[in-house]
Design goal:
Layout (H helix, E strand, L loop, with lengths): L6 H10 L3 E5 L24 E9 L2 E10 L7 E3 L24 E8 L1 H6 L4 E2 L1 H11 L7 E5 L8 H5 L1 E2 L2 E2 L3 E2 L1 H10 L4 E4 L17 H8 L3 E4 L12 E4 L10 E3 L3 E5 L2
Parallel strand pairs: 5-7, 6-10, 7-11, 11-12
Antiparallel strand pairs: 1-15, 2-3, 4-12, 4-14, 5-13, 8-9, 13-15
Length: 263
């Protein structure tokens, strides 16, 4: 008796035949991984520190494991709505209560790598998104909008954070673009290659930090410090982005994977 053919069995078959590839969108996580730096009057989120519990030694002769200390928003990480004050009163707003269906969603990828390479403070606007839709079709409800900037290819903490006396300089979203994505396109969230979902200079926007303020206020999600977005097509990929199920968690480091049709 042969097993029935299902959508899932076809998916496995397509993966086994190399017709669907798995792309890792996750930065390696180590004590050297940069984390966002806030003004000195605010508490800082720690980077990763690792302490060995045992390493095949007297503390554990047959096993190796570590204690990890890190902030929820370290490395490639997930932002839940409760992370921002505008989302604190929404239902199902924490990493343990968000419906898991939202962790598996299609992706729309907008390539602004050339623009961000020429101008670090590049801002994606509603008009940019609509122009993209004119070529690739309307962004479907429940999709991730991923902004490719090739920022992940910057080497070293200083280049990645790109801070000067007036604060960090990195690409991001215009507030009107985020309102459009959240309310007119009903995306599941936005994802970026930078250390956080907001542009470096977004503290001076109206409202300040709109990728947090607007998106989380609308119950939307965020992904930051992604990589390999240059390996995704504009449409057609499916993203698996499940945070740790931390009770009352505002976010979590996670492994973000993309299922991509083979070229």
């Amino acid at each position: 008796m042969t097993a029935p053919v299902t959508v899932l069995s076809l998916l496995v078959e397509e993966m086994n035949r190399g017709r669907i590839t798995v792309v890792d969108l996750t930065q390696p996580l180590s004590p050297e991984t940069p984390v966002i730096e806030l003004p000195s009057m605010f508490a800082q989120s720690p980077g990763l520190s690792v302490e060995v519990i045992s390493n095949y030694d007297d503390n554990g002769p047959a096993w190796y494991w570590n204690t990890l200390t890190l902030g929820e928003h370290t490395g490639t990480h997930f932002d839940a709505p409760v992370h921002w004050i505008t989302g604190k009163d929404r239902a199902n707003n924490t990493t343990d209560t968000i419906p898991v269906r939202q962790f598996v969603s299609p992706a729309c990828v907008i390539d602004a790598s050339k623009e961000a390479g020429q101008y670090p403070d590049y801002i994606l606007t509603r008009e940019h998104v609509q122009a993209w839709e004119g070529v690739h079709g309307k962004i479907p409800a429940g999709a991730w909008l991923l902004l490719r900037t090739d920022w992940c290819k910057r080497e070293g903490k200083e280049a990645f954070l790109n801070a000067s006396e007036d604060g960090p300089h990195s690409p991001g979203f215009h507030p009107d673009c985020l309102r459009f994505l959240a309310h007119e396109r009903d995306v599941v969230g936005v994802g970026v290659e930078t250390v956080g979902t907001d542009a470096g200079q977004a503290g001076g926007f109206d409202p300040a930090f709109p990728a947090h303020n607007i998106m989380h206020g609308a119950g939307k999600l965020g992904l930051a410090s992604l990589c390999n977005l240059d390996k995704l097509p504009p449409t057609g990929a499916v993203i698996l982005a499940a945070p740790l199920k931390i009770v009352k968690g505002s976010g979590s480091p996670l492994r973000v994977l993309a299922l991509v049709p083979a070229a």
